[in-house]
Design goal:
Length: about 270
């Protein structure tokens, strides 16, 4: 509120007092300004009061903003903040002095396209990936080193983290499909000739469409396969995964990709007419 607005409120309340109206012989249909000169004692007193209230409000507003900034700086950041911050990394740029943001935002330098973070044993486990042909891809060691240095600069004091950026976990499976011969052939091709391998494509699409760092499930794959026209019953006979140079492990029902994403390595499909 301005000083004049505050003064108007004060004078309106003052003039509404019956004793004041009688004493000053005030006209209730006129404003204070219409009945008192600006240089009158009453006007000066009310102006001083309004100015004091205005000044006090300004101090309160300033203190509130100051305290909010202090609280904001002191409050530990959450997982979503860290994910957005990691994705904001700009390859080849330095942060502004005494700041956790870049002086110029250039989205063409945002090389971290995928990121997910979970907290485990007091650490932030940060999984990241770049992008190639619309799919997650491993970033090179130079970029990963840059991201690591960047996180060390923007993170809250005392926060420990582990950064993971790896090649896709490999996936292979043996699948049994009971099919309707009106739609599919014994090789899995559509009878109408529009698609030679719809089941394989459904598996590939399921693997590719998994959200970054989400769980693979045999049941989820079966649901995707049974949406293929002509598939009556789908069964995952055996599914396996591997990351790095580690041995292949059989997936009994659920698998969490170590890299945050997977790549189809091998697929064997058995077709049985229903």
């Amino acid at each position: 509120m301005t000083i004049q607005e505050i003064k108007n409120q004060i004078t309106q309340e003052w003039m509404s007092d019956p004793t004041i109206r009688v004493t000053y012989q005030l006209d209730p249909n006129k404003t204070f300004e219409e009945q008192f000169s600006k240089v009158s004692l009453e006007s000066i007193i009310f102006y001083i009061q309004a100015f004091g209230i205005y000044l006090f409000n300004q101090v309160l507003a300033s203190d509130k903003s100051y305290m909010e900034n202090i609280i904001k700086e002191m409050k530990p950041h959450g997982i979503r903040w860290y994910i957005n911050k990691v994705k904001a990394f700009q390859l080849g740029d330095s942060l502004a002095v005494d700041s956790d943001v870049y002086a110029d935002i250039d989205e063409s330098k945002h090389v971290v396209k995928y990121c997910n973070i979970v907290e485990k044993y007091g650490y932030l486990i940060i999984k990241i990936a770049g992008e190639s042909n619309g799919l997650p891809a491993k970033l090179n060691d130079t970029v990963v080193a840059g991201v690591t240095s960047y996180i060390n600069k923007v993170k809250d004091a005392g926060v420990h983290f582990e950064l993971i950026c790896r090649d896709a976990d490999l996936y292979k499976a043996n699948i049994r499909i009971h099919y309707d011969a009106l739609f599919l052939s014994s090789s899995g091709a559509r009878i109408d000739g529009t698609d030679s391998e719809p089941v394989k494509k459904a598996v590939e699409n399921y693997i590719k469409s998994m959200p970054f760092d989400s769980r693979y499930t045999n049941m989820g794959l079966i649901d995707a396969l049974q949406k293929v026209e002509g598939v009556i019953v789908a069964d995952v006979v055996k599914a396996e995964a591997q990351y790095g140079s580690n041995p292949w492990v059989e997936i009994s029902s659920i698998y969490n990709p170590d890299a945050g994403y997977m790549k189809l390595e091998e697929l064997n499909i058995e077709y049985i007419a229903y």
